[in-house]
């Protein structure tokens, strides 16, 4: 694999992970690892262009239908594709269909760019997420196969103990916080062949034990503010991304 290529343009494709939830900026918008990576690439390449087509809540079929065509048409040097996690975390999921759609997305995007980046998505360690690991391992094995077949870069975030640590995740337990996104940006930066600026997988210090009352209070708040609304959207067929446009729908010069 050729690394340390000079990239003049970058298109990010995916769901909330790539949109940047929950790396909040002071104005209430989200930044995220893709924006951080674009900023670092832009600092080395005058005229660098960036688009982020990712929208929260999107399933892999929606990503294929709504994002891969526009992304392929942009002809960017670098494309990242992360999707399928929203599918496999649902109670009922046809993992074979998810893998087939991911393959379709890769086959559309790989011929249009110098470098395609795929990821084994991170997950917040805990008993709930562990229930879905068999599905994830099947999805990740297909991602590895597609990476080898299309000479794509595969970044393994799932194996990281530090990124999976609950302290790297927002209170909704579904999205990385600012430090989590910073580490993902560094991981992709290094996977592209650039000199490390930090150890993205550096172990965290030992966690301070949390008392039973504090844990239960956190669980109740999580259920009320996040889990309940999530279940409500599933039951009514709604998505957090319904009607939402990408934050960077066109491949334009990067602006911080």
From TrEMBL:
Keyword annotations of the record: Hydrolase
Source domain of life: Bacteria
Xref: Pfam families: Lipase_GDSL_2
One GO MF term attached to the UniProt entry: hydrolase activity
Presence of keyword Hydrolase: yes
InterPro entries (alphabetical): GDSL_Rv0518-like (IPR053140), SGNH_hydro (IPR013830), SGNH_hydro_sf (IPR036514)
Annotated SGNH hydrolase-type esterase domain residues: 12-183
Region (Disordered): 235-256
Enzyme Commission code: 3.1.-.-
Protein's recorded name: SGNH/GDSL hydrolase family protein
Gene3D superfamilies, per database record: SGNH hydrolase
EC main group: hydrolase
């Amino acid at each position: 694999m050729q690394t340390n290529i000079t990239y003049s343009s970058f298109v990010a494709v995916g769901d909330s992970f790539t949109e940047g939830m929950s790396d909040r900026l002071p104005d209430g918008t989200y930044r995220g690892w893709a924006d951080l990576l674009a900023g670092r690439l832009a600092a080395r390449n005058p005229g660098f262009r960036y688009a982020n087509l990712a929208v929260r809540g999107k399933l892999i079929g929606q990503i294929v239908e709504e994002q891969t065509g526009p992304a392929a048409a942009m002809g960017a040097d670098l494309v990242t594709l992360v999707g399928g996690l929203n599918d496999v975390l649902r109670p009922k999921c046809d993992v074979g269909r998810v893998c087939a759609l991911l393959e379709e997305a890769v086959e559309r995007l790989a011929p249009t760019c110098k470098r395609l980046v795929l990821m084994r998505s991170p997950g917040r360690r805990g008993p709930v997420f562990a229930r879905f690991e068999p599905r994830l391992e099947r999805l990740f094995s297909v991602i590895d196969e597609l990476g080898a077949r299309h000479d794509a870069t595969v970044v393994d975030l799932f194996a990281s103990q530090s990124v999976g640590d609950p302290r790297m995740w927002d209170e909704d337990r579904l999205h990385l916080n600012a430090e989590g996104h910073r580490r993902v940006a560094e991981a992709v930066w290094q996977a592209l062949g650039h000199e490390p600026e930090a150890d993205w997988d550096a172990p965290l210090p030992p966690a301070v034990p949390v008392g039973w009352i504090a844990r239960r209070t956190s669980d109740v708040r999580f259920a009320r503010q996040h889990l309940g609304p999530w279940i409500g959207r599933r039951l009514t067929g709604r998505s957090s991304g319904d009607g939402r446009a990408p934050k960077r729908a066109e491949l334009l010069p990067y602006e911080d």
